[in-house]
Amino acid sequence: MDTITILEERGKTHGRDSEHAAITQLTKSLWKAHPGWTRLTPSQCEALDMIAHKVGRVLAGNPHFQDHWDDIAGYAKLVAIEIAGG
C-alpha cells in the first residue's frame, strides 16, 4: 500500500491530521501546565501523553473505532500495573 492510500485509510478512523494535532497539543499543554504534572513518573507522563493522543483521534476521527478506546484503556492499565509493583 502506498503512503497516500495509508493516509487516506487512517483519515477515516483518525480524522484530519491538523485537527487531531490541534486537539492533542491543546490537551497536553493544559495538563503539563498543571502543578500536579511535576509529581508524575516518566511512565505516567508518557501514558497521559498517549491518552491525549488517542482522545484526539476519538474527537477528530471515528468515535466508534474500538481500537481508540482499547488503546486508552491499555495505557492506563500499564500505569496501574507499574503502581501495583508489576
Produce the secondary structure layout.
Elements: H1 3-14, H2 17-33, H3 42-60, H4 66-83
Helix pairs in contact: 2-3, 3-4
Q: What percentage of the residues does DSSP assign to strands (E)?
A: under 5%
Structural class: mainly alpha
Largest sheet: none
What would the average pLDDT be, to the nearest integer? 96
In helices, the fraction of residues equals over 70%
What order do the SSEs take from the amino end to the carboxyl end, as H and E?
Answer: HHHH
The global form is globular
Calculate Rg over CA atoms: 15 Å
Please report the distance between the alpha carbons of the first and last residues. Answer: 39 Å
Please tally the helical runs, counting DSSP H or I stretches of 4 or more residues.
4
Instruction: Work out the number of β strands.
Output: 0
Unreliable parts: none
Short description:
With 86 residues, the chain is mainly alpha-helical. 77% of the residues lie in helices and 0% in strands. The mean pLDDT is 96.
Please give a structural write-up.
With 86 residues, the chain is mainly alpha-helical. Helix content is 77%, strand content 0%. The chain is built from 4 helices and no strands. The protein has helices at residues 3-14, 17-33, 42-60, 66-83. It is globular, with a radius of gyration of 15 Å.
Provide key terms for this protein:
4 helices, 86 residues, mainly alpha, 77% helix, globular
